[in-house]
Amino acid sequence: MQYCQGVPNIKATQTSYAVLGLLALKPWTTYELARQSERSLRWFFPRAERAVYLEAKRLVALGWAESTKTATGRRASTVYAITRAGRRALRAWLAAPSAPPQLESEGAIKIFFADQAGTEHLRATVELLAEQTDDALDRLATMAAGAFTFPDRMRTNVLSMRLVSDVHQALADWADWAAGAVDVLDAGDEAAVERQTRETLAVIAGRPARAGTPSNH
Amino acid sequence: MQYCQGVPNIKATQTSYAVLGLLALKPWTTYELARQSERSLRWFFPRAERAVYLEAKRLVALGWAESTKTATGRRASTVYAITRAGRRALRAWLAAPSAPPQLESEGAIKIFFADQAGTEHLRATVELLAEQTDDALDRLATMAAGAFTFPDRMRTNVLSMRLVSDVHQALADWADWAAGAVDVLDAGDEAAVERQTRETLAVIAGRPARAGTPSNH
DNA sequence: CGCGGATACTGCATTGTGCATCATGACGCT
DNA sequence: AGCGTCATGATGCACAATGCAGTATCCGCG
Fold this sequence. Notes:
The structure is a homodimer of 217-residue chains. The first copy, chain A, is 61% helix and 10% strand. Chain A has helices spanning 14-25, 30-39, 49-62, 84-95, 106-112, 119-145, 154-187, 190-205, and strands at residues 28-29, 65-72, 75-82, 102-104. In chain A, strands 1-3-2 form a three-stranded antiparallel sheet. In chain A, a hairpin with a 2-residue loop joins strand 2 and strand 3 (75-82).
């Protein structure tokens, strides 16, 4: 192994591009980047605060950002700004195809394994999920009603906001339905449970791709 | 969380419980666990195959699973089975509150930063997202129409299947809407763009929690 | 008999997380 | 003037998780 001067042996991850995107808006300190990531990116790209701090340094190593040391009194504070190469990399990434979206939900795992415990726990899991999605919808609603840091970005910004809101709305609607479904499971009417199961499968099975092209595999 | 006596200093992660849940259904080899994780858990708890292999060993170390060495000819194959302590741990976990659900979407990040590139890339990102969610809905539909490995688990299984299907349906619907929204951005009618932005914000802002408490941000 | 694909893993380098820790600045209170 | 508290602005460490390459065996097919 040898040292490569110029371009070090570092690979850009999705985290790199996410932080790079923030830097494209304006220069930030790592602390601000972490806050901003928490407020905006977290909705569709959750990363630990720690990762943001580490990423800023990696971006500098990649030549995609520059750091400037400033100070507030005795206290050091490093501001990161995007470079020309950084903007180029960001544009190239924006033009490239993306990995498919993924859902991660501890509650969903528990619901999947619900037959290993009593329905009271299933019910509690569904209820908590309802609260959590309601809370998310609340926070999104507050954001939408409030002021924006970058007014000129609003027109595209609302697209991703709505995506997130729609997903959480779907989860909230599901939770409402699921609460009823658990009632049916609890009621002990075998025929009703059977019917509910068949109907749910039918709903899912009846959601093929958009255009009515018959699948052939 | 409680520690069983004699158990080494290993902490259970969500991955531990996810794999433990699979073991609660029947004994599996790590390879089968990896396949099954890919087929079912992946929908709401995506983990690399590697993690499943490592997790099985950790479960043994925790005393929650036992491994039995068998062989197919010259070839070794280890079967993992849940222990009594494992079932206890699983039940305790199923009764505990869960972390909120999270979405991760590279496409959403790109849409969030769409103003850094041309609308043609925004359009492509939306279209790819549409294809990916359609594909997911297709696969779910096929699963729902097919046979189940554990027929007696179907009644609860359909709950989590529907959750996943609903989320992907929401994403597919969003993509349809977004395609139209991008058209509006492209058309160059400033007033229409303005209207669309305001209306979208209004939709998001009008989704507070279930109970009709008036928001007072 | 040779070939390819499914089965059944392991090793390594690197990224990402969770938690603890530390230090200063800003602001208000008494 | 002194004190508390919260926001600011990070760093270190251990461990979890990923991605990818590599290894080797079994089985069916021509």
